[in-house]
Amino acid sequence: MRKRVTLLVAALMMALTMSFGGVAFAKITPAEPPSCENAGGNQPGGQQPTCTGGGLTQNEATPATNPSGNAPPGQQ
Fold first, then answer.
1. What region, left, alpha or beta, does residue 70 occupy, with left being phi > 0 and alpha being psi -120 to 50 degrees?
2. pLDDT per residue over 46-76, tens digit each?
3. Rounded distance between C-alpha atoms, residue 76 and residue 59, angstroms
4. How far from 36 is each of 9, 51, 62, 64, CA to CA, in Å?
5. What does pTM read for this prediction?
6. Is 60:68 a contact under the CB 8 Å cutoff?
7. What b/e sequence results for 24-46 when a residue is b if at least 16 CB atoms lie within 10 Å of its CB, and e otherwise?
């Protein structure tokens, strides 16, 4: 009887180890507000979300996304 209990406990521990071993935590890419870029690909200092001035490119806002490319639950 003691041997059976030991084997049962060992089997349960192995099953739990295997079930938790494959868990991967998905990384959520954070949302980015709109920004400006100059010709060098850098953000000019002190710029507001709307680009003003010559040689600046407006970058659109990007929503938060999970690895499948969708918005996380509760976010639009």
1. beta
2. 756 678 777 888 888 888 888 787 877 776 5
3. 19
4. 60, 6, 13, 19
5. 0.41
6. no
7. eeeeeeeeeeebbbeeeeeeeee
Any idea which residue has 């180890």 for tokens? 17
Domain residue spans of the chain = 2-59
DSSP one-letter string for the chain: -HHHHHHHHHHHHHHHHHHHHT--PPPPBPPB--EEE-TTSPPPTT--SS--STT-EEEPPB--B-TTSSPPTT--
Please give the structure tokens belonging to residue 21: 């071993």
| Banded pLDDT at 24 (limits 50, 70, 90) | low
